[in-house]
Structures are given as C-alpha cells and as structure tokens.
Amino acid sequence: MKLSTITFVFIALLSLTPFAAYLYKNLEPEKVSAQSVFTPAAIKNGTSDTTKNKTAEGNTQSSVEITKIADDKNTASKPKKVSIDVKYPPAVNKTSPLGINTNEIYEQDASIPFVDLFRVSMPFHENIRCRKKDQPCLTSAKVEYDKQGWPKKLNGGKAGVFFIRNVSREAYPEGNYTVLYDGEGKIEYLQNVEVVKREKGEDTIQLTARADGFMTAALQIVESNPEKPLRNIRILLPGGICQGKPFEQVADSIFCKDSKYLSFKDHYKTILFNPDYLNFMKDFNVIRFMPMSGVTRNPAVTWDQRPKMDNATWGGIYGSRGAPLEVQVELANRLKANPWLNVPHAADDNYIKQFASYVHENLDPKLTPYIEYTNEAWNSNFVHNEYMQKMGIKEKLDQDALMAGYKYYSKRSVEFFEIWEKIYGGHEKFVRVISGWDTRPDISGIILAYKDTYKSVDALAIAPYIGGNTRGFRESETVDDIFHLLTDEKSYRSLNKVIDEIKKHEKLANDFGVSLVAYEGGQGLVDWATRDYMQHPNPLFFGANRDPRMADLYATIYKEWRELGADLFVAFSAPRSCNASGCWGLKEHIRKDLKESPKHQASLDFINTNDKWWKWDEIKAAKKPSSKEVAKYLPKTDPDKPRIVIRPAKGDPKHFFRLENPQALNILLEGDSWDKRDISGKWQVKWDKDYLYFSAKVYDKEAKNDSKKPEDDDSVEFFIDPNNSRSKTLDKSNDFHFIFARNGKKATFGSGTSKNQKLDIPFDVEEKYDGYEIHAKIKWKDLGVTPAVKNKLGMDVVINDDDDGGKSDARLGWNTRNSHPVPSDYGMILMSGR
After folding, report:
1. According to the model, what pLDDT value does residue 10 have?
2. Cα dihedral 453→459→461→464 (10° resolution)
3. 798 contact partners, CB below 8 Å, separation of at least 6
4. What is the pLDDT averaged over residues 66-82?
C-alpha cells in the first residue's frame, strides 16, 4: 500500500548488507496501531531512544557555514562561504565521557548520514565491476566522465549506480522520494523502485521490496544530451524538519505549528544530515571521522586529491570513498562535538598544511580537534603499514623493515604535529594522538620512545576489543558458550585479558607522561574466515550482540577503563549491520529500538551517570619524563634468550610444511629499496625424532635463475648452528649453511660447510602466483644432533632476489644484520614438546 506524505510511518531501519535476510528472519517487526500512525509523535522520529539526564534548556540560533576549499596547492585556502541559518539546541555532549566512530560511506551504511541518498552511492565508473548476483554491471566501459565523476558522454552505452543495496524495506519511510537532476536525458530505475511521476529535471519514485522483504535500489542514465549532459543527481528522503528541531524528522508542515517547516526537497543543501543520524551522534563528546573520511587504504598524496564537495558521489570502494573535510567539520560544529581527524598515510606537507588551515579557520573555536596521522600504521593488513616500512627503509631509519616502519610512523607523526602547531601558533588548542597496538605494549613503547616522540604527544590511543578466541568460537554451540569465552579468565582476549592489557598500557602511558585513550573499542566477535552471514559461528555472534548480557559487558569495560585511570573512550561504531565481517555498531541500524540495542543502552547509561573526568589543559601542562627514564622501552636484544620456540610436527604429514606460525623476514641486508611484493618472506621449522622440517614462502614478482652461484639468483639460505656455539666464525664442522635455489632440487652449501658438501639434501619448490615456496626435510643425524625438548640451536634465514640477471639485487634476513652471517648473528631457537 502506498501512503501519502502526510500519513507515512517511519519504521525501524534494518541492515544495509547482502546478509540482511538473516536479520529479517530473526527480528520481530514492531507492531504499530492504526491510531499511533496518525499521531504527530508516531510520525516524528529520533526522540524515543533515550531521555537524557543531562539536558540544556531552550534553543540557540547559530549561523552555520558550509565552505568550499580552494584548490591552491601553495597558499592557505580562501573558502567561498555560503551562509545558512539553522537553529540548534545547546549541546548535551559537553560532559560526555564517550566518543563514537563514524562508518565508511557506501550504499550499505546502516547509519544513513545524509538526507540525499545519492551521496553514499557507488560511483558510476566503479559499477563496471560485476562481483555478485545482486551487483550486475550498470555502467558501460565506453562512457566518458568529467572531473567530478559525472558521465559526460554515454557513447551509446549506459551509466548507473546502486544507491541502496540489500536493505530491509522497513529501513526507510513510506512515501514519495524526490529525484532531482540537471541537464537533459532520461533515468531508468532498477531493482525495487517504482516510478510515480516524471517531470523535467525531477522524478518521483517509491521504494518497494522483494519477496524476502528486502530491497536494492539502482538507477541508470540511459539517455543524455552531450551538449547538456544529465548530472547532479539528488535522491531525497520524504518529509523534512521543523526549524529548531534538527533531530526530529517530520512528514509534513502540519507538524511544525510553532516553527517553519523545512522540506528535504527544498532545503537538502542546508539540512544535509539525516535527523536520525544527528539524534544518535549528539550524545558523544568526540566524533572520530576516520571511517567516514576514507583514509583507510587511501593513496592520496596532494591536496587536490582529497574528497571534494562537488564530487558526483562520496561513496565507493576503499581508496576512493570519503566525505570532504567540509562535511566533517560541519557535523562537528552542528553537534558541538570535538572532531577526531585523520589524514591519509602518504599525504604531503602541503596537504597537511591546507587540512590544518581549514580546520583552524572553520571549526568552532570552542571545540578541540583530536589529530592523528593515518590509522593503525602498525597493522600489516593495511597498505599504510607497508608504506611506513618502505619509507623507513628509504630513509635508513633501520635495517629491519618492521622497526623502520615504527620509527617512520613516530617521525612522520611529529612532523604532522609540527605543521599543525605552526598553523595554530602552538599545540594548546588541539590534542596530538599517536596510536599503539592494544596487545603489544612493546610496540607502543618503541613508537613513543623513538627520538623522544612522546614529548610531542598528548595521548596514546589503543583499541581494547573483547573477543578473539577464534578456535573457541568455532567450537561453541550456543550464545551461552560465547559469553563464557568472553568472560573466562583463560580465554584469549576475554574481558579479564583485555583489562590486563589496559593496565599495561596505562602504566606505559604514565611512564611517558601521556594520556591513554581508546580510538576504538567494544566487543570484537568476528571470524574473518567466514564469508556468509549464516556460516557458523556468525549466528551466535549476532545473538550475543543482541543479548542483554552484552550491556553488562560494555558497562564493565567502561567502568574498568575509568577506574584504571584511562581517559576518553571512543566506541566502535555508529549504527551498522551485522554480517560475516562482524556486528560492530552500537545499534544494528539507525532506527533500531533502544530496547533491542544493549550496547547502545549501556553506552547511554554510562554517559548519563559519568561526567568527563579529564582536562586536556592539565594533561598538557604536566611535566614529561626525561629521555633516560623511558629508555627502557627501546628494544634490546639478548642473545642468551630464545628468539622463538619451534614445535613438533604432529598429525597429518601433509601439513608438516604448512606455515602456521611463521617468522617474517624483514631485515634488508643488501639493496637500496624494499618492496613487500617483490622481496619479502616468512619461514618456519617443525621437528620430530628423525627430521627438521624447513619451509619458506618468498614473495617475488619475477623469477630469475641465470647465474652459476645460486645465491646470485632467487634462492633461500638456511643457517644452522646445532650446538648454539654463537661463535664469530663458521667452524666448517658443526655449522651448516644450506642454499635452496628456486630452480633447484638439491641443496648446495656455503663455504662454511665445506666438510658436508657430500650430504644429499633434496627439497621441493612450489611456484605460487606471488612467488614460491621451499620445503625441505633435513635429517637430524646429518646435523649430528639428537633432538630433545629444551634443546637450543642457532638459526637464521636469508632470501636472495634477482630481477634483472647478474648478481642478486637484494638480500633479506630474519635475525642477522650482516649480509653474510656467522653463528653469533643467528637467533636462538628453543625446541618445544607441544
């Protein structure tokens, strides 16, 4: 049934994911009586979630300005301002102790941040990709685009986008949606969309649903006048707001008796944000814009590569999506929330300068920006981490790529802060944040200690997530089992284990004289190996997130966080759906009832019963410790302590060479540059009573084997000091140096093992799409060793890479820092029985 604009009901939003069918089957729809449908309170949206204990009386009039940043690369931006008048209530988040992370911008975002749905759509040029049944190709390859991403010439083809994908029909209000566009042409609507009316430059549509109750909405430009191409598409929600009540969406002007009615159709530019979204975000002291800004895997270097206001869409895949800085600052100003801002990892100095200048000139001066260089620079899942390592190697900060990466992150963060200080005339008006790894305080210590980085830092940020016992979760049969693992003292990343890690980091932060904050945190129930929402254990994860006990878990982590002396906690995240990648949102969608959102309820309860307990001016004024006092956090190697433990080979012999707990090869011994995809690797050994099982994976773009010496070509060298002599020279008797050539079948030997050149050591080479693997079985009797638990050996591994013929172009090692290692350079290995 189609309802008129006046009578539509805003029903609870559901997930924006391909896996939403599961949620639809397991969530009971809210029953609405006929009487409630026609009351203003039922049609309004956004005030039912919570009654705040902390409120402010009355409304204030504020002049809000959305600005366009100039593209000048060398001078401070001169924004072109467009003034609008919007009434906003006084902030209720001033004393809130919690922050919130935004979501990425894409057509499945369950937080629905904008009144214009086209803002989150997949760009036209990205719809050439056909990945799934629900994502057919909508755009022809021959379409030409302008610099904003709008099709300027179809060339006989079509250009389309998804603006909603796999969303419950209950997620959006009934009523007519307005589609506005400029230029001349024709739009066809696909999937679950019905056309109600067409006029010049304007279409009226309604959203429908599939048999399963879900919908996908797409459009295609099928005709476009090349002289006046169809562009500037806007897809606007029904209804609007009453002036002065930006957190409540209403159906029509009849609900604005005492104030002016502002329809989305006529005022979308100035309203900009979905009232539901504002209503949710208003309770948080800090908004972390990292996901919304699109910095993750973002390759931007120069200022003109940033997301812009006039881009056709702000959605898309990693590396292309992101809301403009103007939008981030505008949201912070309207909510009077302190923004947490990130820049891409490769941003140059001018990018940072222009970024800081815009914030300085346009952010409400009463607000305090938190600033952070990139995001999780130590996380090997991100290109940011590889960039840190490459730059650290390039600047010769360390031979070890990992250490070089940590040091470069420290160095670049300080440079980042210094640029902001020049713009602001000091560092008193913003918070300088550097991030660490919540389970690796040793890495956090290195990052802070390197060249006194801590003296330029106000806050160390970590992400205390509860959950991570993947094996236990897979063996679980009930939601009770999940909660047992989340609270069991012996379970990996259980509540108690996470609290212990917080204690370690709080002590570390105190030692460095900085505040400890959480840039993300909460439950972390996810099995990254799953691909389907119904794949075990995902249904148990969803059940746990909806269980009232989850509220108790959040209440405990918040309470412990404060009592341990830590400061701001920024939860992850704004409303987002549950799927195979986790159930991360405080709510499953923006309109989810608070009674069915235990994480959100626990967060609001904490906000309402706790005032912000820290003061940045006091933290900044505290005296920093001396370099000598924190020197203990810089790494020191002890050759008399085992570097790693090797475990016995058990079970299926086919798995003896499986790289289950490999050691990374990171130390550049020869070569001028480092490329993870061209020269890097990992290795592992296992053992039984007869053999030592050696395996190595080498990443290499090009195979080269044209030299007489295998070490001049692609090869792996394996060094063994069976009696752990740690001598300064190879003894040519008990020391072994095996060389496994990529094109070989039997090991050759280095000069230090000349006595043993008669040994027959066969090995297998397995070519991979990204390199190759070496598998070798070495008899203990050939090494002159009787294997036993607690034996200690010396070992090292070196890989050689040749890309252009002749001698090798690079050598990469594990423990040694010498191109031709001797036993004293090797890492000590301890043999384990389990």
Report:
1. 31
2. 130
3. 665, 669, 716, 717, 719, 811, 812, 813, 814, 816, 821
4. 42
